[in-house]
């Protein structure tokens, strides 16, 4: 299937139209061949936007680029669909609020790509820092340069959206920083090891607490979007993601510890 822009999604009407056209085409083909051929199908609908079976396959392939999934194995189809639903809701909200400032620049995408090739564990093992290693990595995982860039563009876009929408209203007080330093940081140091003074690590602690609060606000907001949205899963064979794959979803790629991340969607 041709790749679509990072902020677009197949409308339900278009998807149904494609299904009708494919059905007519396949009916003609079946007159010559007794074995039916299924090219694609709609597996879910999110506020009149279709999620295709091929989108799930694409999401599973892209999960190799997510550092948060290191050691977790292949992404389950139910978890992939759950991530796609969340991503659609977020992208619809970005378009609704007309947040053009969230669109990343080419330089930002290039920088993210460079970091990925140098730091992603599976990429390091495949020598992605070299052109030959990177080409081999893409081929092994059935990805393209264009597709990876679309994935990274989405990651930057969603992070910027979260920063704009939630971070400005969060204030971390000095007593919160001191409490984290005393109750969380200090117990991590073995007895006898040099402990950095509070004034040296306070900025980093503030960032960690800031990200935690932003994540809480974002999770609540996304949960409300799910409750208010019109979401219909059309494939009964896809099980509950909380049963198949208990990994929590949070599409926040940040440097702070204890902040989970999930694979970005990009174009489909």
Structural commentary:
- The structure is a single chain.
- This protein has a domain of 172 residues: Orthogonal Bundle (Triger factor/SurA peptide-binding fold).
- By secondary structure, the chain is mainly alpha-helical.
- Helices cover 56% and strands 4% of the residues.
- A three-stranded antiparallel sheet has the order 2-1-3, with helices on both faces.
- Strand 1 and strand 2 form a beta hairpin.
- Helix 2 crosses helix 3, helix 4 crosses helix 7 and helix 8 crosses helix 9.
Amino-to-carboxy terminus distance = 9 Å
- What percentage of residues falls in helices of 4 or more residues? 55-70%
Give the helix tally.
Answer: 10
Mean pLDDT level: 77
> What's the SSE pattern?
HEEHHHHHHHHEH
Count of beta strands: 3
CATH level 1 name of the domain at 12-170 and 232-244: Mainly Alpha
Strand content: under 5%
Largest sheet: 3 strands, antiparallel
| CATH fold field value of the domain at 12-170 and 232-244 | Triger factor/SurA peptide-binding fold
- Shape category: globular
Chain oligomer state: single chain
Structural class: mainly alpha
Rg (CA only) = 22 Å
Fourth CATH level, the homologous superfamily of the domain at 12-170 and 232-244: Porin chaperone SurA, peptide-binding domain
CATH architecture of the domain at 12-170 and 232-244: Orthogonal Bundle
Low-confidence segments = 1-8, 13-31, 243-268
- Largest sheet, spatial ordering of strands: 2-1-3
């Amino acid at each position: 299937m041709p790749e679509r822009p990072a902020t677009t999604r197949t409308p339900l009407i278009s998807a149904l139209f494609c299904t009708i056209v494919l059905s007519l085409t396949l009916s003609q083909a079946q007159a010559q061949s007794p074995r039916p051929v299924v090219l694609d199908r709609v597996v879910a609908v999110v506020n009149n936007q279709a999620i295709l079976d091929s989108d799930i396959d694409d999401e599973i392939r892209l999960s190799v680029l997510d550092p948060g999934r290191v050691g977790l194995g292949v992404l389950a189809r139910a978890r992939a669909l759950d991530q796609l639903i969340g991503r659609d809701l977020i992208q619809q909200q970005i378009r609704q609020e007309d947040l053009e400032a969230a669109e990343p620049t080419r330089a930002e995408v290039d920088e993210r790509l460079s970091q990925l090739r140098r730091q992603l564990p599976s990429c390091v093992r495949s020598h992605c820092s070299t052109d030959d290693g990177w080409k081999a990595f893409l081929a092994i995982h059935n990805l393209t340069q264009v597709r990876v860039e679309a994935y990274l563009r989405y990651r930057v876009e969603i992070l910027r959206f979260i920063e704009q929408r939630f971070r400005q209203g969060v204030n971390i007080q000095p007593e919160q920083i001191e409490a984290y330093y005393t109750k969380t940081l200090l117990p991590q140091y073995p007895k006898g090891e040099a402990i950095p003074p509070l004034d040296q690590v306070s900025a980093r602690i503030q960032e960690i607490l800031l990200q935690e609060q932003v994540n809480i606000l974002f999770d609540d907001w996304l949960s409300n979007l799910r409750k208010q949205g019109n979401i219909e899963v059309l494939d009964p064979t896809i099980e509950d993601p909380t049963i198949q794959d208990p990994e929590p979803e949070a599409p926040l790629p940040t440097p702070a510890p204890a902040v989970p991340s999930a694979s970005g969607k990009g174009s489909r």
